[in-house]
Amino acid sequence: MRIVLQRVTSASVTVAGEVTGSIGTGYLVLLGVGQGDTEEDCRRLADKVMNLRIFSDENDKINLSLADVDGSLLVVSQFTLYADCRKGNRPNFIQAGKPDEAERLYNYFTDYCRSKGKHVETGIFGADMKVSLVNDGPFTVVLE
After folding, report:
1. Residue of 9, 35, 38, 80 marked catalytic
2. Marked catalytic residue, from 55, 79, 109, 125
């Protein structure tokens, strides 16, 4: 499982001209599911995302978590995080999870975050999505 996480002041995802998810302060989570990923991987990474301390405190030190700033999550599926570009000029996605299992784990990830009391918005799995964001910092991290 791979995550590209961006700290944002706002983010939204649009499908076919309609906003399907929108947040203010929080994290835009681009989530890629790989071959062999499990529910345990989902829980481990979700806990890491929710507890990551990358917001600034009153002394401008990066010290606060999502809960500390009452932040939200916008989770967008992105199988292209598993693009292998080592050979040729066209990426292959052999390491990406099969669509049915990837969608199940994507939903498990979002449901798990909600079960921990987080406000979670989403895109639509497998859809052609347009993602807009204001990256705060900018601050971007990659988690595996």
Report:
1. 80
2. 79
Reduce the DSSP state of residue 103 to 3 states and report it: helix
Query: Residue 6 catalytic?
Result: no
Domains, the chain = 2-143 (3.50.80.10)
Per-residue pLDDT reduced to its tens digit, 57-112: 999 999 999 999 999 999 999 999 999 999 999 999 999 999 999 999 999 999 99
For the question of whether the overall pTM of this predicted structure is more than 0.90, the answer is yes
Question: Do residues 96 and 34 make contact, with C-beta atoms less than 8 angstroms apart?
Answer: yes
Question: Tokens 């292959």 belong to which residue?
Answer: 92
Which of 6, 78, 110, 122 is catalytic? The answer is: 78
The answer to whether residue 20 is catalytic is: no
